[in-house]
Write a structure and sequence with these properties.
Strand content: over 45%
Shape: extended
Number of domains: 1
Radius of gyration: 32 Å
Number of strands: 26
Oligomer: single chain
Structural class: mainly beta
Distance between the termini: 34 Å
Largest sheet: 15 strands, mixed
């Protein structure tokens, strides 16, 4: 059951404008369920015994309640000095009584300098630059972390069995320690920006710099030791934090030539993830700390470490004369087509000490750079609109059948077509046609080529795609002798994962 109540008040007096909103929203739900799964020990038995039951899910019904109270106050003087204050008081059934509620305030200020008298009295500024607004905001957002009912203890059924007093007894296992050390995470957001409008607002744009500081991220302590006999580890708590920093920009142009109207606009966002505080991080040595992007405070935690490929071996002679021991066996396992790795530390031996971080986010998350482009026209009732979206600074890494020969799975056609092959597959002395990838062999692939992280299996990606397309026609009231209406066709191309 969901409810929403809202009160709204707005008034303008002289040059003052006030707008106030307050409201409350609630949600309450209950989902009882029981699930049994098992296999009878013999045909014809109409019930499941505890021994034959392999899974029991008892969805014990409980009220899943959420409550939110919100308020917002907006004020502006002469549409020039603008202020907004807001706050939310949210509660969630996820957390134990006493930690269920959190207050999350925010505020923003804006100054439309283009509305000042000196601006309007300047012929150049007033005629060429229509809008300049400086703005800034700071606020706290609530982030619901963890899972429901972690503050009570539950049990998992059928976690083994034992013979007690001559009987086979099926056991259950405790889910773990209950914890009341989890509550709302808080995201502190700072945003500074400027908006502009030029040439009768035909050209508009804006720029933002933002910093998101996420606190209260869940992690477990490691310095409180539990005996192994207990069978579970310490529960998570609100211990860690992270940062996201970046910039946004948008730019648009709209105009008309007689009855032909058109517009074009674009925007982009560039952001980086930064490691925040970690609960008592520890490393074996300084090199481990250098490699640990996820636990070293202040580090950009994008990308991964891998060997840097600087080419491929073209012949047996080149392998024999290669001065760096690459396979740890004097290069005796290397074949033409295998990768040549950069000896970063110049010790004459390839190891993980030669790895470098030369990638972006790998096979997950969003690209560092995201952008979009929109355009549209309108002419004598016809209208057309298209939107494109894209990204850059993202790394795709080939895995599994796109990387090596798996004896239990067919090799991808792409990998087969682009791998190194013998000129005559029936004659091992026929020489090689060097492809983009090493020689495909079953069971004897050079592990440094196929399984060690290296840059040859990674591609830095930039892409743009058509996201949606719309074509329409508006029938005028004179044509139909009725109120006008619009017919249109719309195509949306969703993201394919």
């Amino acid at each position: 059951m969901t409810s929403n109540v809202q009160l709204d008040y707005e008034k303008t007096f002289d040059k003052h404008h006030v707008h106030m909103v307050t409201g409350m929203e609630t949600k309450s739900s209950n989902y009882p369920s029981v699930y049994f799964l098992g296999s009878q020990e013999a045909n014809g038995i109409p019930f499941l015994t505890t021994k034959s039951t392999t899974y029991v899910g008892d969805g014990i019904p409980f009220n899943q309640n959420r409550l939110g109270v919100l308020g917002r106050f907006n004020y502006d003087y002469d549409n020039k000095y603008i202020m907004e204050l807001s706050g939310r008081y949210d509660g969630s059934y996820f957390y134990k009584k006493g930690k269920r509620f959190g207050f999350f305030p925010s505020g923003s200020l804006a100054y439309r300098i283009s509305q000042e008298r000196f601006w309007k009295n300047n012929s150049f500024l007033s005629q060429k630059i229509d809008e300049v607004k400086l703005r800034g905001s700071y606020g706290v957002l609530g982030k619901e972390l963890g899972n429901a009912l972690t503050y009570i203890t539950g049990y998992n059924f059928n976690q083994g069995s034992a013979i007690l007093d001559g009987r086979d007894v099926v056991s259950s296992r405790i889910t773990g320690l209950a914890t009341d050390n989890i509550t709302w995470g808080r995201v502190y957001v700072l945003d500074l920006g400027v908006d502009i409008g030029l040439f009768n607002n035909r050209l508009t744009g804006g720029f933002d710099w933002f910093d998101r500081h996420q606190t209260g991220e869940l992690a477990s302590r490691y310095d409180v030791l539990l005996p192994n006999e207990i069978g579970f580890s310490l529960p998570a708590e609100n211990l860690n934090s992270d940062h996201t920093k970046g910039i946004e920009m948008h730019l648009g142009w709209k105009d008309n030539v007689r009855d032909f109207n058109y517009f074009v606009s674009g925007n982009f966002t560039f952001s980086r993830w930064i490691t925040g505080t970690r609960y008592k991080p520890r490393w074996a040595n300084s090199y481990d700390r250098f490699r640990d992007l996820w636990n070293t405070e202040g580090r950009f935690r994008d990308g991964s470490f891998q060997l840097v490929s600087v080419g491929q071996f073209q012949s047996w002679e080149q392998i024999a004369n290669h001065p760096v021991d690459q396979d740890h066996y004097g290069n005796t396992t290397i074949r033409p087509g295998d990768y040549i790795y950069q000896d970063t530390n110049h010790d004459g031996y390839i190891s993980d000490l030669d790895m470098e971080n030369v990638t972006y986010r790998v096979n997950g998350g969003t690209p560092w750079l995201n952008f979009a482009f929109q355009t549209g026209v309108n002419w004598k009732g016809f209208d057309f609109r298209a939107e494109f979206a894209g990204g850059s600074k993202f790394t795709y890494e080939q895995q599994w059948v796109m990387r090596y020969f798996d004896g239990n799975t067919n090799v991808s056609q792409y990998l087969a077509d682009n791998s190194t092959w013998y000129k005559d597959i029936w004659d091992k002395n026929s020489g090689f046609n060097i492809g983009k990838y090493p020689l495909l062999t079953k069971g004897v692939n050079n592990w440094m080529n196929t399984h060690w992280p290296n840059s040859n299996w990674q591609t830095n990606v930039t892409y743009m795609k058509l996201r949606n397309l719309e074509l329409g026609y508006t029938f005028s009231s004179q044509m139909l002798k009725k109120p006008r209406f619009r017919a249109y066709a719309y195509m949306y191309l969703p993201r394919i994962s």
